[in-house]
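Sample A.
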Amino acid sequence: MKPLVVLPSYNERLNVVELVQALLGSCPDCEVCVVDDSSPDGTAAAVAEAMEGHPGWAGRVHLRVRSKKDGRGGAVREGFAWGMARGGYDAFVEMDCDFSHDPAALSQGLALLAEGYDVAIGARYPNGQILNVPLDRRVLSLLANALARMLIDRSIPDYTGGFRFYRPQAVEELLRHRQKHTGYIYLSEMMSHLLRARCRIAAFPICFRNRERGTSNASLNEIRSSLTGIFQIAFDHHLRR
């Protein structure tokens, strides 16, 4: 199975090169697409420099630079659309660019796709571990997920986690729909589309570690707005079923 790992990045100069190297080492068959929203800290330049300095990255690491920052969801869609147009990938992966998600866990998600699932979620809830995340962010995340499970579908354990694996058919389904929500709430919107398309969805527990370097791109205001966005997503979900 040949996967494309999409890394949405913004001000991730401190993490991205080391993360790409770890991904290539953990998954010999994978390629990586870094989608950078013109980070002012020089993230894209750091990736471009590393591409020239690492012969083993040739043909395996790709860089897409967007003109402005418009949210994690838009960056992921850019990477997915680029990968689908390029072709040749059996799986697509999205993950955070700050080592919150362990590159060594790639094999678990890809194994679930190989078993025939359309989507696999690296889930924090109910049995995963969450380390060093501030209490206020943990509480808001729990509330958002509890609401989503109650309002949309109880079968999904983690609506707002960004460590996900997709077969190309699932990515094609996502790209058919215009993105309505920006930020991390788009993860819940994506899951609504996949559920309505009757995709086979599996989950496995992960250890989620709060970033050690750099500043989180998920502000408390964004997390709070996610709570209200879930109601709109749930309304659309049941209206279109």
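Sample B, a different protein:
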Amino acid sequence: MPNVERKKARLCFVGPMVARHPGHVTTQGEILAGLFRSSGYSVISVSDCRNRYMRLLDIIFTLFRRCRSVDIQCLQVFGGPSFVIEDVASWIARLFNQRIVMFMRGGAMPEFMARHPRWSRRVLKRADVIVAPSEYLARAIAKYGFRAEVIPNVIDISEYNYQHRKTARPKLLWMRAFQPIYNPEMAIRVVAQLRNVEPDAELAMGGQDKGFEADVKQRAKNLGLNGSVRFTGFLNLQGKLHEASAADIFINTNHIDNTPVGVIEACAMGLPVVTTAVGGISDLLTHGETALLVPDDDDEAMVKAIRRLVADPELVSRLSVNGRRLAERSSWQRVKPQLEKLFEQLMLNHRATYAVEKL
């Protein structure tokens, strides 16, 4: 009996798993699936189809075909158009009496729940456990009567070379998808203003094009920044490490955010961070200790924060050291025991319920 109790749960991670296609970001679902698989768990991950409709079909087919191979469905919940997939996948898990852990993703989820409260409640009620990477999302779902376990997003901290910054030049790195919610044009405006007082200021911008990169490039051209802004294209891990080693400050300009992995990665590499204080950012970072926070879309405030770093080596060093410590909270060594404890408890509860039903 003790051996049965310690049997590892068979996991199925459901969500967009498209990183095998060039130019696509590796999602937290993919990262967790790979790490648990490497830790000896039986893991299914679905789906790597880029098209949302094909992804839905692949998920449905896989969940029915592999229904007897799954104890716990680990559902990545983003809201928006993908909530149809999340609704269907959780319904199938309930059909086959699987446990469901819903991992809340994305800073836009609170807005989605406000627009679709009944739909959101109906789907979230299926969860045995809800996991949020920040207090921000935990507070958002608490308004609808749900409780979330707060467990950080995970990175493989060993892959990120730490470079302690003692001083900072105005060499900036921006790293996110090119779409309006991430406000890449703000980065362009910031460097244009910064060059008026810091003529050697430079900006590298890397990320997946979501249909907005051409507009940003045109904006840079219109502001006469052709020699000061470099577009790197999509950055894989080696690309991130290379660009981070050449930069001294990481800027994050998002309008909406939750717990951005890109910011955690920058902290892991020792880059002082200047970011808009939106969504869950204020829960993740502390102004003056792990980053400098500025209001949303406030170019002048971000320029001032960058200049403050350039002029204050002590602040640069403090943010660099504290940022690395913050990133270490997202290491697999820290996150794994929290998730394993959650899975083990679900399995025990499930067996106890099954035993009662058999009596």
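Observation for Sample B: The longest strand covers residues 72-77.
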